[in-house]
Structure to design on (503 residues):
């Protein structure tokens, strides 16, 4: 059919995955047992690729609040906040976010994707300039395309390259808006926010930080990388999601910029979509409360992250540059990534496959994400499965002696990774 | 420096040569994605290398209009000379 001819190459690749019966893009969990386990058919699967960082999806209080709110306010709002009105819960959740971040303004979106789409497309107007980190998430790129600003990208995590690009724009009219992420979702690396903050101050630019993968994960009180690096005053807008550490769905932006609330009637991805259902809002509020009163969740999460990272590094896998809840093993090619993924699944472990162009530098990744809900035994079991399947595929050296030498070569650095 | 069309073509070709096998033929008519097998991100990464050498910034909408090496040379030249 001619309409779909443009997808021919993609269709071929997809059909090949279907044919070998291992398609990560079409997997279905028949039952979910807990934040860390699910059933596919009759197989019990250990989940190591869900972004369920704090394991709050089964938090009893969050579920109870969601049930109460659903009974009181119904299953959905059936409309947008602008056209059909806000519910009490939306306003309460925004106040809770303002309180959590210590900021004057907050806006809640229906997904994290829409939060980036809305904020980036609306903040940067026709004569403004958006400067995006090259490894930005698709939602940031899509937001930049929805808006009318001039968009350029700077080298990933490179404040000097940002500096050069702002210098080139020194005489150009319009505001300059820089967008970076707290933790990058593909390799789990963090932004040098302190250095970026210095550059943005020097050039009078605005700074947007997407803390999707760092909310509830980093910082003394879980506010993210800006809190951890003590640069919150320099971050003009924080964007984030409820669908990872908070275990629900939705997105938000918080700010101290006066005039912020005008975005409610200017931001199309906020205005022209249904608002979050009452049950989701109530569960999110409770999960945000959990982040505040259970700091030990962050501690468990990071212990698990370090345990998995050092375990996989010890096996000789080449990983992202630092331990974080996202632990990605760099594969020699997409075929190997699919093979390892399907062998792990067959052995009872669910992970993710990430491929270019979603990944940086053309890398094929076998991506894992850990949860505070994983027990140390589950992490050790996952490492053992990596060892067993990795050895069968020739990715893990066979003997202890060679493993020790690979450990040195693959120690936590991206140096030496081919970047074709 | 690096301001004439020929200078810019040299920069583009040298950047591509460093990334591709020597046997690949390059001309103004070479289609960057189709003939060189680059995806959208690889094209942006390649343009970033030329930006560095030419000390310019190329907006993403200008990159998306580029199909051939000749298109890219023209775009980079226009930006470099402010035309």
């Amino acid at each position: 059919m001619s309409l779909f001819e443009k997808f021919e190459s993609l269709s071929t690749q997809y059909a090949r995955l279907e044919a070998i019966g291992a398609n990560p893009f079409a997997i279905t969990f028949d039952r979910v047992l807990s934040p860390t386990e699910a059933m596919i058919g009759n197989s019990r699967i250990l989940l190591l690729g869900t972004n369920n960082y704090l394991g709050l999806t089964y938090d009893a209080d969050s579920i109870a609040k969601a049930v109460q709110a659903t009974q009181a306010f119904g299953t959905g709002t059936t409309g947008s906040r602008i056209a059909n009105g806000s519910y009490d819960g939306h306003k309460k959740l925004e106040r809770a976010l303002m309180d959590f971040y210590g900021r004057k303004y907050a806006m809640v979106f229906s997904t994290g994707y829409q939060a980036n789409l809305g904020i980036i497309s609306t903040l940067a107007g026709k004569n403004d300039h958006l400067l995006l980190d090259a490894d930005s998430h698709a939602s940031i790129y899509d937001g930049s395309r929805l808006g009318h600003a001039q968009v350029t990208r700077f080298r990933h995590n490179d404040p000097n390259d940002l500096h050069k690009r702002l210098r080139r724009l020194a005489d150009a009219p319009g505001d300059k808006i820089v967008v970076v992420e707290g933790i990058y979702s593909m390799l789990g690396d963090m932004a040098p926010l302190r250095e970026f903050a210095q550059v943005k101050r020097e050039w009078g630019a605005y700074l947007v930080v997407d803390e999707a993968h760092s909310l509830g994960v980093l910082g003394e009180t879980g506010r993210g990388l800006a809190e951890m690096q003590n640069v919150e005053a320099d971050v003009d807008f924080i964007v984030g999601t409820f669908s990872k550490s908070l275990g629900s769905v939705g997105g938000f932006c918080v700010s101290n910029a006066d005039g912020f609330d005008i975005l409610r009637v200017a931001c199309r991805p906020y205005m022209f979509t249904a608002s979050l259902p009452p049950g989701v809002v109530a569960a999110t509020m409770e999960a945000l409360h959990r982040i505040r009163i259970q700091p030990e969740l962050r501690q468990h999460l990071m212990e698990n992250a370090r345990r998995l990272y050092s375990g996989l590094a010890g096996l000789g896998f080449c990983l992202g540059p630092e331990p974080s809840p996202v632990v990605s093993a760099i594969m020699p090619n997409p075929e190997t990534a699919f093979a390892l993924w399907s062998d792990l699944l067959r052995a009872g472990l669910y992970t993710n496959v990430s491929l270019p162009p979603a990944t940086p530098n053309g890398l094929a990744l076998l991506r894992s994400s850990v949860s505070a809900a994983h027990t140390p035994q589950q992490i050790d079991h996952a490492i053992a499965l990596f060892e067993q399947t990795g050895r069968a595929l020739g990715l893990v050296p066979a003997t202890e002696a060679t493993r020790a030498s690979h450990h040195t070569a693959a120690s936590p650095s991206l140096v030496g990774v081919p970047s074709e | 420096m690096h301001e004439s069309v020929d200078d810019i073509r040299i920069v583009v070709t040298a950047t591509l040569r460093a990334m591709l096998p020597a046997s690949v033929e390059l001309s103004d008519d070479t289609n960057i994605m189709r003939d060189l097998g680059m995806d959208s991100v690889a094209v942006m990464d390649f343009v970033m290398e030329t930006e560095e050498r030419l000390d310019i910034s190329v907006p993403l909408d200008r990159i998306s209009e580029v199909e051939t090496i000749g298109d890219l040379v023209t775009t980079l030249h226009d930006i470099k000379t402010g035309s």
